[in-house]
Amino acid sequence: xxxxxxxxxxxxxxxxxxxxxxxxxxxxxxxxxxxxxxxxxxxxxxxxxxxxxxxxxxxxxxxxxxxxxxxxxxxxxxxxxxxxxxxxxxxxxxxxxxxxxxxxxxxxxxxxxxxxxxxxxxxxxxxxxxxxxxxxxxxxxxxxxxxxxxxxxxxxxxxxxxxxxxxxxxxxxxxxxxxxxxxxxxxxxxxxxxxxxxxxxxxxxxxxxxxxxxxxxxxxxxxxxxxxxxxxxxxxxxxxxxxxxxxxxxxxxxxxxxxxxxxxxxxxxxxxxxxxxxxxxxxxxxxxxxxxxxxxxxxxxxxxxxxxxxxxxxxxxxxxxxxxxxxxxxxxxxxxxxxxxxxxxxxxxxxxxxxxxxxxxxxxxxxxxxxxxxxxxxxxxxxxxxxxxxxxxxxxxxxxxxxxxxxxxxxxxxxxxxxxxxxxxxxxxxxxxxxxxxxxxxxxxxxxxxxxxxxxxxxxxxxxxxxxxxxxxxxxxxxxxxxxxxxxxxxxxxxxxxxxxxxxxxxxxxxxxxxxxxxxxxxxxxxxxxxxxxxxxxxxxxxxxxxxxxxxxxxxxxxxxxxxxxxxxxxxxxxxxxxxxxxxxxxxxxxxxxxxxxxxxxxxxxxxxxxxxxxxxxxxxxxxxxxxxxxxxxxxxxxxxxxxxxxxxxxxxxxxxxxxxxxxxxxxxxxxxxxxxxxxxxxxxxxxxxxxxxxxxxxxxxxxxxxxxxxxxxxxxxxxxxxxxxxxxxxxxxxxxxxxxxxxxxxxxxxxxxxxxxxxxxxxxxxxxxxxxxxxxxxxxxxxxxxxxx
Length: 790
What we know:
CATH architecture of the largest domain: 2-Layer Sandwich
CATH class of the largest domain: Alpha Beta
Distance between the termini: 56 Å
Shape: globular
Helix content: 25-40%
């Protein structure tokens, strides 16, 4: 049983009190003395040459303080990609400059080319309407196949075929994979689209730049998942501000889903405007701006082939993918379709041979980057759809086929043909648990009941694996990463025994303030209420890499444990002196340092007080104070995995799909707070169902975003979702981090889309519509109805 409020307890999220009572402090809530307001002008065409921007009338309007255009930022550096991915022929990737504001050309609708700063937001908006931009519209390219094939349609003039890179993984496998396909008894081929999504965090992006002319210091308040990365990029690449002169503060952040990992040009623009005006400058995006300018997610077109024998044993798998990166490279855009996607194409299976080819393609659309799951959902969807299609072609049971191809518990550590080493897992156990909690045995009765109401009922399955906490730094550096992937924590014990924990991870909905306090409380035996978690302010926290990719607990939490271990080790030295005992005889348990075999002890609070009031203290050998910092760079990814089942009802007359049941059996390793884990899975599944049935960012042939508001972009609502059944009892602890944890934040978004689509196809086949072998997401009523009608 977990300790009261410690590791394993379903402690209620303490940060929710301030959120639910309106006491959260988001960037938009911050107002600095003398602040001005910024309004960005954004391109209305997807591709155009900027001939002239006339700002004279705008500058003369009431309250206007400045109008800045791309020309004012032309000498600054560009916002770089975080990974260099070479092509399979060894050629360097194409990396065009991404400016703070567009200069010379605009390359997607929403591309910012000027900013107006005024005393009030209304004055800034009025003046923005007076800026006259002479932009010659040029042909735009939106379709990736057309972008690659037509050399006359160039997003960037210097890139003839719009290809950023042509990546192969693992290139040495290619000949063997091709040979296996030539001799395979059966080959299943599927062409599919992983639809483009808009992240739609509850809080739009916002930034406040604040320059102090007296000290030369800059402060940036911003909606960031990764404040240290933003500071590094602004300092080293974009503006050249000395890093010690720039503080980035990410206060409460209302969701991110990946879209707030990156540095955006608006952040640099408000800093530059503040410097020019010697006063703070604030910008808050409206929802329309978010649709146009936030980094989108997914957008892959894939051809996947699976070679098997006639009994469904996997022999080889290969894929060819066009991955849309939009008009510019966002910070993780090159890693998402490659090392976060290609390396997962073995899934949880013992497929002996795998080859992956990805072409990253520039188009005249908003940049595309990591979105909840980031490459892993795309890989899982491709695998699980082609497996189901193969089972139908060979008339095999999809459960039995998956079961016999899964990696077995006695095969760990397991090296995949795409370069990963899975340290632990039990995939048959999660599959068995899923069959139990989803009540597979009762499905036929439920199907008959649906048929009596004129509905087609289907059952879909997916088994999945994820790689979280990408690492280690020295390996990913060889593969092309341009940053380290460790994290850090500082544990400061105050003289009165309460604790401040400064973490490089950032919370934007995950419940870090609760879970991190639980861990420290459990380790030190003191109440969680005595522990304060500090994050988001680069002037207070150690250099860490933020929160994304389900890394916060496995990497940031492990750094915290290491720092606490240092605190305990120092405490033992202090206790040994105070208790006149050998250090080796001191044990620490339940908040007390004791001498083994005696009743002599000191509380944690007494040791802390002695560290700061060192009257009875080994000063000759030990410094006063009780504060420790630890960095943790993982030896490997963590590998959560699971099995998901979805039940749907389909109305064949209208094509409407209703999800009537959803069950998840997950392996997250050791679980720190089951309630929070359940919430993370619920949210991920909701987003996955949204992708499968509702959401799609669509552009017309001219690059105009057709789904630029909630009138056209369908988000899942409460009545679109059933109650979810979630289980995480089949846990196999991670072998290489001190907590034994894996990751849970993205699981639901990874395993759910293929389960939903497989369920719909199953319903149609059971209803006699066997000609339908695939429907691209989202499975809207019109698409399902059209498929039924052939």
